[in-house]
TrEMBL record:
Pathway: Purine metabolism; GMP biosynthesis; GMP from XMP (L-Gln route): step 1/1. One of its GO terms (molecular function) is ATP binding. Catalyzes the synthesis of GMP from XMP. Keywords: ATP-binding, Glutamine amidotransferase, GMP biosynthesis, Ligase, Nucleotide-binding, Purine biosynthesis. It comes from Nitrococcus mobilis Nb-231. This is GMP synthase [glutamine-hydrolyzing]. It is an enzyme of class 6 (ligase). Homodimer. Residues 2-194 form the GMPS ATP-PPase domain. Its EC number is 6.3.5.2. The keyword Ligase applies. One of its GO terms (cellular component) is cytosol. The keyword Manganese does not apply. ATP binds at S29, G30, G31, V32, D33, S34, S35.
């Protein structure tokens, strides 16, 4: 019978049998899948699990602190927090092409992860949050973008080079099942029902060259948008919502004079499979409040626009 606790019990037994007394490594992103794997492995093998969380400077506001609070402090999971912001941003300087940015971010991520793994003794397993739809997806033919999603998502190439065996305890589960298990394992509801966040993070939501000041403004704007969506109780009604930084300056005017600053675009979509999507008809009052707050509170932004493109022809992300 399918219940969350049955699945957990069954998985825990299987993980223990498979892993024995070996050490296991997990790249924790803060997303639902890797978080559920962390919680499940922690229950199954406790101290034999080490997680690596890489802050690449392209995460949402307070994301690193939240991951550490939930897993390290609250659940007692061993998490190595790597601050790699400078390293990522330095390598990304001057890179404007979306596909090059994606590949570069994926590559640096693997390097950082690899280095951390090299410092640990006796690790024999690499755990991943692969879920059933990922398995199906990688079996079929894919476009360039989707292939990159996969190669980043699954930390491509790593296991072979590091000579680790793969542990994928969610491999036969659908997203809603993964969420049920996450809740049963005690993960916060907010984390379990969080909107998807792409592997390259804000790197593909800052159009063109990535710079720290752009990332900081975007983080602030995005947090305001999400906060107001929650406030209007619409967060769970949309499938994905986020802000995008447009490195285009436009003229604005405020009490103390003329401004010549950047633009933030807001994106909110409704979809079931993320292959097609409709833009959300968000209430004007919400959009007005978000716009007012972003212009007041996010440094260097003097204009906010709303994206009314469906997928197709537009994609959900802007890059
Ligand atoms: P698009 O932009 O292709 O996005 O309509 C569809 C869904 O996939 C997410 N996405 C990614 N997820 N790595 C990921 O893990 C990626 O490189 C990536 N690119 C897009 C996107 O956020 C949306 O949910």
């Amino acid at each position: 019978q399918w219940t969350a606790s049955n699945i957990i019990e069954h998985s825990v037994t299987r993980i223990r049998e498979e892993v024995g007394t070996d050490q296991v490594l997990l790249g924790l992103s803060g997303g639902v899948d890797s978080s559920v794997v962390a919680a499940l492995l922690h229950q199954a093998i406790g101290e034999q699990l080490t997680c690596v969380f890489v802050d690449n400077g392209l995460l949402r506001l307070n994301e690193g602190a939240q991951v550490m609070a939930t897993f390290a402090r609250h659940m007692g999971v061993r998490v190595i927090h790597v601050n790699a912001e400078e390293r990522f941003l330095t390598r990304l300087a001057g890179v404007v092409d979306p596909e090059r940015k994606r590949k570069l971010i994926g590559r640096i991520f693997i390097d950082v992860f690899d280095e951390q793994a090299g410092k640990l003794d006796g690790v024999k397993w690499l755990a991943q949050g692969t879920i059933y739809p990922d398995v199906i997806e990688s079996a079929g033919a894919k476009t360039g973008k989707a292939r990159l999603i996969k190669s980043h998502h699954n930390v491509g190439g790593l296991p072979e080079r590091m000579n680790l065996r793969l542990l994928e305890p969610l491999r036969s589960l659908f997203k809603d099942e993964v969420r049920c298990i996450g809740l049963e394992l005690g993960l916060p509801t907010e984390l379990v029902y969080r909107h998807p966040f792409p592997g390259p993070g804000l790197g593909v939501r800052i159009l063109g060259e990535v710079r720290k000041e752009y990332a900081d403004a975007l983080r602030r704007a995005d947090a305001i948008f999400i906060e107001e969506l929650r406030h209007y109780e619409l967060y769970d009604r949309v499938s994905q919502a986020f802000a995008v930084f447009l490195p285009v300056k436009t003229v604005g005017v405020t009490g103390d004079g003329r401004r010549y600053e950047y633009v933030i675009a807001l994106r909110a979509v409704e979809t079931t499979d993320f292959m097609t999507a409709q833009w959300s008809h968000l209430p004007y009052e919400l959009l007005e409040e978000v716009s007012r707050r972003i212009i007041n509170e996010a440094e260097g932004i003097s204009r906010v626009v709303y994206d009314i493109s469906g997928k197709p022809p537009a994609t959900i992300e802007w890059e």
